[in-house]
Amino acid sequence: MAIKKNKPGLNSRHHHIRTFLITAWRLPILTTDLQKLGVYDGINEVIAVTTNTNKTANAAPIGLYKHKHHLQIHLYQNKTRENLKHREYLTANITQDPILIVTSALSTLPQETYTEIEYQQQKYPVLKNASTWILLKAKQQDTTTFTLQTLTGAAKKQTPRAINRGLFAVIEATVHATRYVIFHSKEQLRCINYYNNIVNRCGSPAEIKAMNILCQLCNIELDSSLL
Questions:
Q1: Domain ranges of the chain
Q2: Can you list the alpha helix ranges (DSSP code H) found in the chain?
Q3: N or C end of the chain: smaller count of CB under 10 Å?
Q4: Cβ atoms of 167 and 207 closer than 8 Å
Q5: pLDDT score, position 159
Q6: Domain 165-226 CATH class label
Q7: CATH architecture of the domain with residue range 24-155
């Protein structure tokens, strides 16, 4: 029996179009559209990556504030602010990895955690495991405020994930942990303990592991009697 060949036509043409779209969807597409990059009005929790004076990368979680087309951050005396003095660029990295959120806030990430992107023949560090990166140019407005200009960005295709309270609890606990390591406040410790209980009830193994790492890095033992 002769094998019947597909005739060129709608089916064949649609097949090629579908193949092209699937291929294109898997590739990160460069854009400056902040909503396409996952940034909306309000405070967006991101990991800022800057370049140290010795050309290595530094990461630290920050709140990226967006209002309409305006972006800004508030920085106090920290490594991110120090690095922006000698190179006024940073990348905002978006991730749902709770361990990366905790370790970037409370420790120094190994350099193999990073990769580089190129923009106008210059290279900038980003996190390898970020789902989105955005290259920003910073301009200091006052003592703590920096306005940001979006230069380019890319978002990877991701599998949708339902909202998990454990992830948000890790983020809140991390915010309190960064204050606890400075002030050693019982109130901050109580808040960490509160969010740890939410993680234990709602979180995945990744969130639970992230909280264990947080406790190790802060050298604390949580106690339910603190609630």
A1: 24-155, 165-226
A2: 10-26, 79-86, 98-106, 165-183, 186-202, 205-218
A3: N
A4: yes
A5: 82
A6: mainly alpha
A7: Roll (2.30)
